[in-house]
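fyi for ur records
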Amino acid sequence: MLKRYSDYESTSDYFSHYAVLNDALADINIPTTIITAEDDPIIPVKDFNDLKLNSKTELIIHRYGGHNGFLENLSGRAWYEKKMIEIFSTE
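which gave:
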């Protein structure tokens, strides 16, 4: 799909442009919160642990949650919905 419907030549090409690694966020100057999970099958938690972050960035790593499965309960509400309200209410 990438080759046919995008400007990317391959999945490797796509992910090389998509990746945020090492010190890519070190100079960010706005408050930023990153939420991930240790069991994310798409992005290894090591990539997050290796990021060079400054005091404006909060990194939250849950033990479970997959790539985007931070469900709070069986109703389907996600934990990060509350976190987003908290973040945007204080800024």
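The radius of gyration is 16 Å. thats all i got for now
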